[in-house]
Structure to design on (413 residues):
């Protein structure tokens, strides 16, 4: 039995940020990682992926990007190297290759059973990340086994796919990037479009993230969000990070020959039925885009940036969309489910979950004394799940944790 005050579960960006903050506060802890540092970045990302945020936004407590290309976008390998270097510079006490199998409440703490022994700890920080398990719609089970089905974490490049057409379901950042890459490989692509938030890469002379950061939109606390549940259900921003800092949107994909259809609603054997909602979905997305750009425009006027013309919103030409197709007849041999993520915690055998299986928490502080969670979407602010935002939350949780450890019988608030 090994002992420490705090066990941090996961050595990704959230776990490493938490470890740094705990070390700075002199709190004894261990980071338990089932694989290697930044394991998901190593094994669950496609080859051409780059961060959606510019390099200058790669900021964690005690460490940030210091390279020669602040306006560029890190590749997967560069992101892994950054996190490895960060872990070394902060001397995080990481135990890699340690999978937590179960958690049991004991007097004044928890007992963790792992594949390499047991730990007795007074507190736990669950830092396994927001992008845990692919969220695959139930209709996938109704599709014929003749059609290959994959999720983004199982995709590396187009060459691993059959030569036939591909249906990509989901039009957020992941879906549009995979749709473009696969289409450019010569495979016809149909993109099933659901709710999305389009944004230009550059606007009024700056990266769009520069504006969102400058206007405080990313650091906006959840207390100021009118409908938090709806905000947490929002898809990721429709962006792409490339050396040329280009915009990728539905109009651009349509211009490249990608066929757009509505949300996949039902399936049977080789047939898929789509909602006839493409026009409504894209109209709603354009309204969200205009609201964001209007805020930037007001700020630009206040800062005397009027001479830079705003970027016109491209017109999307919606052709007659099919409401049902036969995949085999259309030559589609693969479906890629880029439909988001869910979270599972089979090792966390405590009564701490809501009806959707999410860990109950208030800004990362769970109602179960001594249990914390970090890195979830909209946990304390809009960028809680971002590499650039998780550090603020880690600092706040460290302060709460220090008080909890100083008064171990006090219930977590």
């Amino acid at each position: 039995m090994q002992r420490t005050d705090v066990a941090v579960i996961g050595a990704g960006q959230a776990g490493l940020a938490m470890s740094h903050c705990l070390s700075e506060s002199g709190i004894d802890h261990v980071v338990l990682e089932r694989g290697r540092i930044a394991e998901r970045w190593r094994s669950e990302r496609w080859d051409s992926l780059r961060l959606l945020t510019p390099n200058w936004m790669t900021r964690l407590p005690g460490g940030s990007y210091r390279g020669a290309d602040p306006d560029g976008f890190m590749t997967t390998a560069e992101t892994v190297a950054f996190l490895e270097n960060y872990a070394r510079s902060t001397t995080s006490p990481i135990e890699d290759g340690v999978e937590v199998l179960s958690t049991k409440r004991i007097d004044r703490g928890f007992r963790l059973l792992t594949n390499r022994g047991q730990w007795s700890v007074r507190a736990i920080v669950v830092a396994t990340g927001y992008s845990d398990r692919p969220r695959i719609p139930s209709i996938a089970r109704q599709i014929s086994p003749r059609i290959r089905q994959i999720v983004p974490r199982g995709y590396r490049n187009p060459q691993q796919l059959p030569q036939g057409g591909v249906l990509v379901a989901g039009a957020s950042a992941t879906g549009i990037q995979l749709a473009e890459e696969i289409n450019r490989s010569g495979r016809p692509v149909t993109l099933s479009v659901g709710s999305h938030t389009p944004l230009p890469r550059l606007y009024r002379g700056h990266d769009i993230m520069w504006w969102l950061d400058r206007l405080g939109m990313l650091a906006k606390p959840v207390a100021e969000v009118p409908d938090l549940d709806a905000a947490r259900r929002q898809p990721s921003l429709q962006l792409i990070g490339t050396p040329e800092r280009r915009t990728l949107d539905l109009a651009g994909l349509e211009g490249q020959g990608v066929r757009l259809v509505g949300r996949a609603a039902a399936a049977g054997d080789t047939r898929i039925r789509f909602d006839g909602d493409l026009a409504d979905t894209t109209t709603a997305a354009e309204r969200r885009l205009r609201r964001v750009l209007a805020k930037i425009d007001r700020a630009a006027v206040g800062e005397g940036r009027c001479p830079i013309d705003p970027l016109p919103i491209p017109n999307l030409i919606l052709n007659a969309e099919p409401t049902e197709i036969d995949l085999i007849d259309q030559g589609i041999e693969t479906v890629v489910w880029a439909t988001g993520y869910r979270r599972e915690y089979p090792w966390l055998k405590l009564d701490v979950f809501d009806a959707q299986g999410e860990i109950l928490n208030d800004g990362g502080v769970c109602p179960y004394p001594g249990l914390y969670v970090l890195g979830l979407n909209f946990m304390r602010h809009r960028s809680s799940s971002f590499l650039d935002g998780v550090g603020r939350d880690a600092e706040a949780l460290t302060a709460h944790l220090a008080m909890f450890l100083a008064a171990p019988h006090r219930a977590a608030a």
In short: The chain has a mean pLDDT of 92.
